[in-house]
Write a structure and sequence with these properties.
- The chain has 295 residues and is α/β, with parallel strands linked by helices.
- It folds into two domains: 7-83, Alpha-Beta Plaits (2-Layer Sandwich); 130-293, Vaccinia Virus protein VP39 (Rossmann fold), CATH 3.40.50.
- It contains ten helices and 14 strands.
- The strands form three sheets. Strands 10-9-8-11-12-14-13 form a seven-stranded mixed β-sheet, sandwiched between helices. A four-stranded antiparallel β-sheet has the order 2-3-1-4, covered by helices on one side. A three-stranded mixed β-sheet has the order 5-6-7.
- The chain is globular.
- Bound molecules: S-adenosylmethionine.
- S-adenosylmethionine is lined by residues 1, 3, 33, 129-131, 137-138, 141, 160-163, 166-167, 182-185, 188, 211-212, 230-231, 235, 257.
- It is found in: Cytoplasm.
- Its main location: cytoplasm.
Length: 295
């Protein structure tokens, strides 16, 4: 899930239990954000796991790590290559069709005139950041945001881990209110700000660079009554405490980026900080959660 991958390692796994084990190990090892881990279940029940690295990984070390956590079965399928990040993202965006999600539709510039007029359009320009709407986690967040907006108008919104800015732009377009967006990754900060302007909500979406809640802007802008955070399970668990401190009573939180088997641990971490789960969407092996702060 890193925005500017150039080196790739991929392998397949036959059992869900082994896939769970190896994804847990890899997301733990790469918590610092120097690699992005993605896992997809194929229709035949096999799992494809892909890692993207900004710097070339030590192949022998990585092979040992995945074989130790997933077993010898993956050894023959493990392959390393490099991808031209910009061309790869551009090419994949050009192939993509608009993605409807509730009242929203996410599309590229080539589809500007072809999307349904009754939807809130979010145009995402080809860029080195995550979040075109096609991934199950982004779609899950948009669907839960749509659900929240049916019964309330949050007044203070945070999109933590904004990537292309897709969720912040969706919230700003629907609410016509200021949204704070943050990302650990400088290119994503630039891309999200550009996409905010492209979608004519640049005056509402303020994008900052921050790791988790480590910036004074959060205390100044908070407490938030809606937080969207589509990052991995491990960072989400670590962020439970600081997030709870930045929430208004009754605030809603939308979490995504976790594989479905990781949801119970994430729910437990947030429940311990006074957040109760309201909804659980499962899309393509990924979970998106809606929680509410009690009191
Ligand atoms: C899966 S992408 C989500 C992008 C977009 N919000 C979406 O829903 O499609 C996760 C984003 O979170 C950022 N990120 C990861 N860990 C973070 C952290 N601890 N603090 C802030 N941003 C983080 C990554 O750089 C990446 O842009």
């Amino acid at each position: 899930m890193q925005p500017s991958p150039t080196h790739r390692a991929s392998f397949s796994i036959g059992s869900e239990a082994a896939a769970r084990r190896v994804v847990d190990v890899l997301t733990e090892v790469f918590f610092e954000g120097d690699a992005a881990v993605a896992a997809f279940e194929r229709p035949d029940g096999q799992w494809d796991v892909t890692l993207h690295f900004a710097d070339a990984p030590d192949q022998a070390w990585l092979r040992e790590l995945v074989v130790n956590s997933a077993g010898n079965e993956i050894a023959d399928t493990l392959a390393f290559d490099t991808v031209e990040a910009k061309d790869w993202v551009k090419a994949s965006l050009e192939d993509l069709v608009p993605v409807p999600a509730g009242r929203f539709v996410v599309h590229g510039s080539h589809d500007r005139d072809r999307v349904a007029p009754n939807k809130l359009k979010i145009e995402i320009e080809a860029a080195l950041a995550f979040g075109t709407g096609h991934h199950g986690t982004t779609r899950g967040c948009l669907l839960l945001l749509d659900h929240v907006l049916k019964s309330s108008r949050p007044s203070n919104v945070l999109d933590l881990g904004t990537g292309t800015g897709v969720l912040a732009i969706a919230a700003a377009k629907a609410l016509h209110r200021a949204v704070l967006a943050s990302d650990i990754d400088p290119p994503s900060v630039r891309v999200a700000a550009e996409n905010g302007r492209l979608n004519e909500v640049g005056h509402h979406v303020r994008v900052i660079r921050a790791t988790g809640f480590a910036a004074p802007d959060f205390a100044r802008a908070g407490p938030f009554d809606l937080v969207l955070a589509n990052i991995l399970a491990n960072p989400l668990r670590h962020l439970a405490s600081p997030m709870a401190r930045h929430l208004a009573p009754g605030a809603r939180v939308i979490l995504s980026g976790l594989l479905t088997h990781q949801a119970p641990a994430v729910i437990a971490a947030y429940r311990a900080r006074g957040l109760v789960p309201l909804r659980h969407l499962r899309i393509e092996g990924w979970s998106s959660l809606l929680l509410r702060k009690v009191g």
